[in-house]
Amino acid sequence: MKQRYSVFLRPWGVFYYEDHQTGKQATLKTRDKDEAFRLVAAKNENEDAPAFSLHLARVYWKAGDPTGATRTWQHVMDEIPKLKTGETQHRWLTAIKDTAFDSIRNLVVLETQAEHFLKVLEAGSVCTNIYLRRIHNFALDMNWLPWPVLPKKRWPAIKFKEKRGITLVEHQAIVARELNPERRAFYKLAWHLGAAQSDLAFLEAENVDWDNHVISYARKKTGSVAIMRLDEDVAEILRDLPGNGPLFPYLRSVRAGDRATEFKQRCVGLKIKGVTLHSYRYAWAERAKTAGYPERFAMEHLGQNSKAVHRAYSRKAKVELPSLGEYERKRTQGISARVETPVMAAAV
Asked: Which CATH superfamily is domain 168-316 in?
């Protein structure tokens, strides 16, 4: 039987191979004759018995990594949280408990087939899809996998449920019904600041710069700094909160899930559906877009990596655009006002 691939030597001393079916020629990147023939023999062997070649590749891989013969996906999942800290570590510890992963927990990594992952994805949710991708990529980066279990194009698309911001009417109803002063102030600040619930719960009086009317903090999730200008509505809320130390002593002491559950209970009582505490963040971004607030300012306010801003400014919120002529007139009037003010002050 004629072999599909053959070896030949180029004049400059490098060995090439030729595919007799397609006529394609490509370099073997070697000047060693024995190595060149071994490489082409492997290609021909793979052509004749691909399943055996795959098995042989696993044997070689296990020989180079002795623990590879017993390393399971549970081992991979256990290693990832060790490299994380804070909230990120907590999210990972929660994610790997997903029951959809049960079918592969004790499966040896090197023996994993595409159908194993497809079974997990079928049984899981959007979060399963996200974290399985990360677990898979971690194994590849650590050289615990010789090749991807699923090619990038074969992963099911990640489709999140539609999210919306809480409306002013809904917010007012929740605040009106809330009897606990600390929680009521928490919801009010969430509306005005659009901060993530954990960032808001861990705010301290020291984050507030009364002299410059600014509140700033480092986001727990990303570490990016969020800077917010205080208006009178926010200042009024802050004046009723502690002047030093934590602004929300109780709410910072409970888990994020407990704060979310308490908020959901309020919504259920008021028959409000489709919102969570994070909806305050979406609401702020949508209000900013509708008001014509520049995106770069919104990014500074919510933190540079805010998905809420990307979402609202890309498609969510509706905004009424002025004509170019109207925009130019307003800009000219604004410049004139700034120029005239110092002159009048000097005359006085």
From this structure: Intergrase catalytic core (1.10.443.10)
Backbone phi and psi for residue 204, each to the nearest 5 degrees, phi listed first:
-125, 160
Run of H or E including 209: strand 208-209
Per DSSP, the chain holds a count of helices (H) and strands (E) of 15, 6
Q: Model pTM? A: 0.61
Q: Tens of pLDDT along 159-182?
A: 877 778 999 999 999 999 999 999
Q: Fill in the amino acid letter for 328.
A: E
The C-alpha atoms of residue 132 and residue 251 are separated, in whole angstroms, by 32
pLDDT in tens, 181-240: 999 999 999 999 988 899 999 999 999 999 988 888 888 877 778 888 888 999 999 999
Nearest C-alpha neighbor of 286 from the set 262, 252, 318: 318
Domain ranges for the chain, please list them: 69-154, 168-316
